Predict the structure.
Amino acid sequence: MRAVQVGQEFAATVHDAESRWYDTGGWRLWVDGLARVVSVSDGWPGLGAVVVWESGPAGRGRVTERVIEHEPLSGQTVEVQDDSIRGRQSVTFSPVDGAVQVTLRLEYELLARSILTPLLDVLFIRRAMAASLRSTLGRFGAELSGAR
């Protein structure tokens, strides 16, 4: 699996960041490409819970996230799948000198493969994945700041 990771520090508590992150009602404001949340199963954000969302017309299509690890005030890992990838995405919340460090990591494999896939991944896909995570995290920080 390939991996991309981004992190950013915000002037908030771990509790505030975690509460905002798990509030799927606000995802359309900050999750890159998300048009609407289709469903959230009981028990979210706990182990085994599932969120299904859809992107806009030029996006990822239908995305399914199933929680495989969750530690309150620490983070969560979900199995993620859409039409083009499957993988694991983790979010961690770490206290840092009166602030919180939020880190997103996506480990993914491409479902459609060809002889050119490794080159395309290095030149384009990995960069696009990292840019999407950075966008999500930046908009999340803006929403987190606005809520304070």
In short: Residues 117-147 form the longest helix (31 residues). The two ends are 37 Å apart (CA to CA). Helices lie at 14-22, 27-30, 117-147. The first strand starts at residue 2 and ends at 10.
